[in-house]
Design goal:
With 151 residues, the protein is mainly α. The chain has one domain (11-148). 65% of the residues lie in helices and 0% in strands. It has 7 helices and no strands. It has helices at 11-23, 33-58, 67-77, 80-90, 102-115, 118-127, 131-143. The longest helix has 26 residues, at 33-58. The chain starts with 10 loop residues before the first helix and ends in an 8-residue tail after the last helix.
């Protein structure tokens, strides 16, 4: 075993949710809300913690869910500040439905980096590395434990 990393309390529920997602042909909307919530928050926060909001917006998620789906998932677990950071930053895109247009998102993010947009940077600092998101996700999974097992 590498290091002293103990398994996370969401490892098994996450594996179950991924298995269900595979069985649904990758259609996250076909899953029960607790599974959707775990998958959306875990994938988004993992990316954000690794490279910030810019990494999140550079990613193309399967079936291109709207960013509001991520906002809703964060709100369901009680991570209101993180939800607000995604909501506010996603509304900064100067075009509609940015989740569909990776090349346009990348151009806009490059412009942001060049301008060193203060508001985007502030939002990024608030959400990147926010350990409370993981704590709230664990609490959410515990409250919905029955959803993460085969009936």
């Amino acid at each position: 075993m590498l290091g002293s990393m103990s398994p996370s309390p969401i490892d098994e529920p996450y594996d179950y949710a991924v298995m269900c997602l595979d069985a649904a042909g990758g259609d996250i909307t076909a899953l029960p809300v607790p599974l959707q919530t775990l998958l959306l928050v875990e994938s988004a926060q993992g990316i954000i913690d690794n490279g910030g909001l810019a990494y999140f917006y550079e990613a193309d998620f399967p079936n291109n869910p709207p960013y509001s789906d991520f906002v809703d998932a964060y709100r369901r677990i009680g991570a209101e500040t993180a939800a607000w950071c995604i909501e506010a930053s996603s509304l900064m895109f100067p075009f509609a439905d940015p989740h569909f247009f990776a090349p346009l998102r990348e151009l806009w993010l490059e412009k942001l980096r060049a301008d060193q947009a203060l508001e985007f940077s502030r939002l990024n600092e608030q959400i990147c590395g926010d350990a409370t998101v993981w704590e709230k996700l664990v609490d959410y999974v515990e409250r919905h434990r029955e959803a993460y097992t085969a009936a």
